[in-house]
Amino acid sequence: QVPLVESGGGLVQAGGSLRLSCVNSRGMRSAVAVGWYRQVLGNERELVARLSSGGTPVYADSVKGRFTISRDERTVYLQMNSLKSEDTAVYYCTVDVKPSIEAPISRLWGQGTQVTVSS
Hints:
Blueprint: E1 4-7, E2 10-13, E3 18-24, E4 31-39, E5 46-52, E6 58-59, E7 67-71, E8 75-80, E9 89-97, E10 106-109, E11 113-118
Parallel strand pairs: 2-11
Antiparallel strand pairs: 1-3, 3-8, 4-5, 4-9, 5-6, 7-8, 9-10, 9-11
C-alpha cells in the first residue's frame, strides 16, 4: 500500500489557482514535518515549502506570498495562487516520520502530481 497519495494537479491558466492534497494513509501521529517539492524534467528536485510540527512554514523565494502549506490529521495541502508558467513541474509531497524516540526520522514520498500552467 502506498502511504502517500497525491491529487489536485492539472492544467490551469496563468494567474489561476490549484490546491494539491496528499493523504497519508498511516495518519500524521508520527509526523515531525511535512513538505512539498517540485521537479522539472532535467532539473534537480527543489524544495517548495516545508512545515515542521510546531514551527513556522518555510517557502522557496519563488513562491512566497503565493503558495501556502498546511496539514491536518491525515492530509498535507499546498494552496497555489497566482500561478505562473514557471511553476509548471511535477509536485511531490513528503512526510518525515519518527515513530518512537529511539527510531530515526524517515521520509515518505508521494508519487508526484503534474501541474501545468499555460501562459
